[in-house]
């Protein structure tokens, strides 16, 4: 093998792999256990009126288009919580779990979901299986909010790929 | 230094460092504070019967063999939570903390613990001290479950090492 | 592009970017909502007397000097929890969110806050915007503790930078 000085790397314009997934989240409200895919496990604290401190665990289907009933190609498993006093803002950490004829493996993501921005980036910090050791960026967009349901559009761009 | 195009990297067959650790977790049940190493900090929600939403904080000893009374070579400090409606499934984030004559430093890990699979991989997303800036994969295996106790076998394989 | 064998990399002595930030955290105690920047969302469990299991969500200002009233250059958004039975010890995951004329983007960090050590390192596992895909180390120091307030000095050293 070669010793490589990795201190400074070129900021690639083009990712080595890119795809778009839609995340569908339906919050549990006690009566909808059959359809719900997420559940709050802590209560908001009195520090603000914007759910500061509410932590939500989720196992959400991911589809290739906007339709919640489309066949899921993967699942997003993890949690987020609200963390701002003056408006809604969140922080996410989760895995995208693939287990299909096309892909087996996971992507691991974390970062701030700056909900007041039209798009916001979080980090893909690792991967396993078909996504062995990958790194990249996921660009999130709120695509729909309706009562207990929200949909995120996620543009996944991987900039370090191992083959 | 050299500018390096890191877009595509070779998927190494052999890691630069590899070792196996056994994680011993004993859940607190109110009466066993002396022996317990983890504690649930949220309650399961009514969304399912598989502990969905229970979040557990742990500080677990890691040993080189399966025996819980062997001298720990490190500790695993972090949390996991259950996140599936239809069976047990979990998500982990934690640090492996070394502080011995052999190793000082930490490894930071996160990922989905797909409990229905015999082995499952999570990401080593960083390291400090002797494990400066490392990345890799940890392969988890449920090695024992007995009441409040479980043991995980963790095969750690580091694919990016700095010397 | 070039295929690069990244198995073994040189441990750089000098980071490609380095800066120091002070984190100011003021815990919510029901009466101080106006000033508080963090809030406990779970209760300590009976496993120990050192807050084991208390999880705290925060949105803390970051300044260039020690003064809490200095103009924040970024915010730290995330959570930590206490995780040791025999003394205070914590685990952190958070984003540093820049949104100024100087920097736009985020750094994502996680790791063990070994509170009994004068300095301790956690991992910078990714970045976005001006900190696209970066990695590095943050060295934490407890700089002040006063009632509900604590201040951390964070020396951020990035060892992988993309330009």
TrEMBL record, chains A, B, C:
Keywords: Apoplast, Secreted
Record protein name field: Dirigent protein
GO biological process, one term: phenylpropanoid biosynthetic process
Organism the protein comes from: Papaver atlanticum
Any one GO CC term of the record: apoplast
Family in the record: Belongs to the plant dirigent protein family.
Lineage: Eukaryota, Viridiplantae, Streptophyta, Embryophyta, Tracheophyta
Transmembrane regions: none
Secreted as UniProt keyword: yes
PANTHER family reported in the protein's UniProt record: DIRIGENT PROTEIN (PTHR46442), DIRIGENT PROTEIN 5 (PTHR46442:SF6)
């Amino acid at each position: 093998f070669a010793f490589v000085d990795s201190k400074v790397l070129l900021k690639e314009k083009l990712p080595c792999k890119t795809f778009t997934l839609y995340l569908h989240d339906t919050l549990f409200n006690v009566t909808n256990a059959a359809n719900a895919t997420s559940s709050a496990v802590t209560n908001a604290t009195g520090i603000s009126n914007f759910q500061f401190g509410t932590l939500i665990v989720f196992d959400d289907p991911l589809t290739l288009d906007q339709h919640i009933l489309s066949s899921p190609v993967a699942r997003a498993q993890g949690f987020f919580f609200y963390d701002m006093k003056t408006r809604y803002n969140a922080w996410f950490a989760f895995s995208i779990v693939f287990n299909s004829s096309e892909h087996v493996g996971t992507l691991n993501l974390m970062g701030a979901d700056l909900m007041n921005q039209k798009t916001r980036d979080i980090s893909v910090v690792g991967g396993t299986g078909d996504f062995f050791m990958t790194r990249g960026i996921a660009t999130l967009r709120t695509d729909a909010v309706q009562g207990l349901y929200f949909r995120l559009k996620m543009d996944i761009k991987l900039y370090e790929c191992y083959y």
